Amino acid sequence: MANTPEDLSYTKDHEWVRAKGDQATVGITDHAQHQLGDVVYVELPKVGDKFEASEPFGSVESVKAVSEVYMPLGGAVIEVNESLNDSPEQVNEDPYGDGWMIRIKIDNPAQVDALLTSIEYEDYIKEEAAE
Amino acid sequence: MRYIPNSPGERRSMLADIGLEQIEDLFDQIPEQLKLREAIGIGDPMSEPDLLDYFRALAARNRTEYQTFLGAGAYSHYIPVIIDSLISRAEFFTAYTPYQPELSQGTLQYTFEFQTMICQLTGMEVANASLYDGSTAVAEAVLMANRVTRRSKFVVADTVHPQYREVVSAYTRNLGLTIHTVGHGEAGTIDPTSLGIDRDTAAVVVQSPNFFGCVEDLAAISEAAHEAGALLVVAISEPMSLGILKPPGACGADIVAGETQSFGIPLSYGGPYCGLFATLDKYVRQMPGRLVGEAQDGEGRRGYVLTLSTREQHIRREKATSNICTNQGLFALMATVYLSTMGKRGVQEVARQNLQKAHYAAAQISKIPGFELMFGAPFFNEFVVRTPQPADQVIIGLLDKQIIGGIGLERFYPKLNDAMLVCVTETAKKEAIDRLVSALA
User: Fold this and answer.
1) I need a labelling partner for B315 at 20 to 30 A (CA). Which of A12, A65, B36, B240 fits?
2) Domain count, chain A
3) Which residue stretches of B150-186 are H helix?
4) Partners of residue B319 in chain A, C-beta under 8 Å
């Protein structure tokens, strides 16, 4: 069973969000990295780029596939995890820690409440697996 | 790869299966006014002997006794006979893109060697399996620079081959990219200090040797581009120059894009040719085209594989780096055989001969009253001559003496109606050059 920490919020696109005030850290879930397999490259946006919620902000490339990574909330990128350029495997090894992707300034912090809780996300991936 | 025909019966049953009556119904979506109604005008069928006679008669109209001094992106170099005999091997000659590429280790190996030699020549870190030709390679370089920098303005020297610039303009016209063309100075090169580069500039696109044959100051242009965070794209139409000039990679180029026709590919009235494309490792994921890598199998044996395919259409769909997912296989093979046959010293020797013969011709022509070199910048095997009468008249006059003397530049640069671009390669013997000089005098 994939690890889904209780203190984080989630999306149906398999991103996690660690929100604090009007800022948030974003990455992909343990479940997502399991599905992708060995990550060989992560394409990230530039600091200052702005995205709407659900817009792709980057992509994760594993050995045979590329997947978009979607913005969980509308906002501007304030920091990107440059260390993923040289060590993309951090996404597999520590998806909720060193494998984080971007920090954003959230346009509307109230939207955080609309994201999935860890329990809702776990239910969602069970449903997805059942389909 | 086999061509498997189908019988009229099979066609009828396939059409019935999809609910159509005749083949033409498949083309219903094409507007009526665009459909060709009459037969294509290629005449009646001929028997094989008649066909041979017909083509022999056509071939006899070719005038091979003319001495040519044409360059401008298509160069007359000696083609060693080994090229034809090697590329004619059925394993190479019949295959189109192998859809199970790793099955064709021979194809992947020569492609890998092609990429390696392009890197060595250009001084770059990674080269792809080739593109259609020099012009499309330059256009792809422009698109790639836009992806890398996420900037949309391009500074393009007017000394880049005019046809390359046309293709760049066709590629970029509807993508929101803007092209600023900068003019050349009296020396025949662009001025690195006044390129108009700003923080929106994605890349400076320059060709060296340029369309006039002049060597651009790549290092200074690179510095100016990089200072503003822009890339340097170096176009090459005469890759033989790499046998003697400092490679663009050593001058700060971020992308080198150009033509490999000079390496054993026949002139063939202008194509098909074979584009080269090379860049730096850090940009490889934004590079267009196919890429062959060397790998090891489970038993540690060397093998070749297509690599970084995630950039390409069959995986990336609309987010692919390019809609090019093939290469000029057979022509890249010609270039590979040429380069391996000539070797490093051979290419250097050909380059030296080009340089010396062109400089001899330029010096002799400059001595003729009324003629002079138009530009002062150093040149490789091409140079622009100022003519006492309009250049096109001079060129027509030379045709009577069985000399194709060069290209009048007026059609590309309307102000340069007294300018003739002359190219002298290793295939021009001294007597031929002297004949050109006395014909002009």
Assistant:
1) A12
2) 1
3) 162-172
4) 59, 66, 68
CA angle B98, B103, B108 (to 5 degrees): 70
Amino acid symbol at B239: P
Question: What's the rounded Cα separation, in Å, for the pair B141 and B202?
Answer: 11
How high is the pLDDT of residue B99?
Answer: 67
- List the single residue in A46, A61, A68 with the smallest CB-CB distance to B310: A61
- B163 near B364, Cβ under 8 Å? no
Q: How many CB atoms lie within 10 A of CB A37?
A: 12
Q: Residue A83 maps to which CATH number?
A: 2.40.50.100
pLDDT grade, residue B1 (50/70/90)? Answer: very low
A62 Cα to chain B: minimum distance (Å): 9
Sketch out chain B's domains with CATH numbers. Answer: 67-78+343-440 (3.90.1150.10), 82-337 (3.40.640.10)
The domain in which residue A21 lies consists of 9-125
Nearest CA in chain B to A86: B282
pLDDT tens-digit series, residues A63-84? 768 889 999 999 999 999 999 9
Residues of A in contact with B150 (CB under 8 A): 46
Beta bridge partners of B109: none
Rounded to a whole number, what is the distance in Å from the CA of A69 to chain B's nearest CA? 13
Q: Where residue B98 falls among pLDDT bands split at 50, 70, 90?
A: low
Q: Whole-model pTM?
A: 0.87
Is A1 contained in some domain? no
Q: Could you report the per-residue pLDDT of B233-245, keeping only the tens digit for each? A: 999 999 999 999 9
Q: Which of A43, A46, A65 is facing B315, going by the closest CB pair?
A: A65
CA distance A66 to chain B (A): 7
